[in-house]
Amino acid sequence: MNRKILIVPILLTVILLSACIAQYEQSHTLRYDGSYTDFRSDLNKARLVPVYPSESVLKELILTPDLQQINITFIDNRTENGYYAAAAFEIGNKLTRIKIANNLDYTINASIITSVEDMIPIDGMVYLFLSGPSQSNETSVLVDNSIVFLSCKEFGDPSRKYSDLDLSVGKMLITIMEDKAG
Asked: At what angle do helices 81-101 and 55-63 cross, to 10 degrees?
């Protein structure tokens, strides 16, 4: 009799934990081009990040066959560099998958710059500029010619496993990936 009493709560706990794990995976995972891709950010929250002027402009910029190089850039800031490194890694990883899935041929580089003016427009090159709270007052994605500003107003609550910059990065990536998602 005592065993039955113990088994029921243990079974309910296992079921509840499984549901929580599934919910987490669902909000941080996207099925893309036939396989699952994990993201640092909660994709449900990332979907709420605004894209200026529009998502279609962003997709056209990154998915054009004329694109030869994507340069991930940020301005050196000792307190923000760790966030930039994590974001750059996720961008490079996902852009490689996007490149393969869409038969595109571009290189991906990362560089530290001293000023936004260092991003000189060159045909066939796109800059992805990571902008933290020291340079931004909004969490958003802004496309301005060949520069995509991935900005965050704040890095967020340290108890979360992702920052607001991850939300901007996630929004950019899922916008580009949505045609082959599902």
From this structure: 70
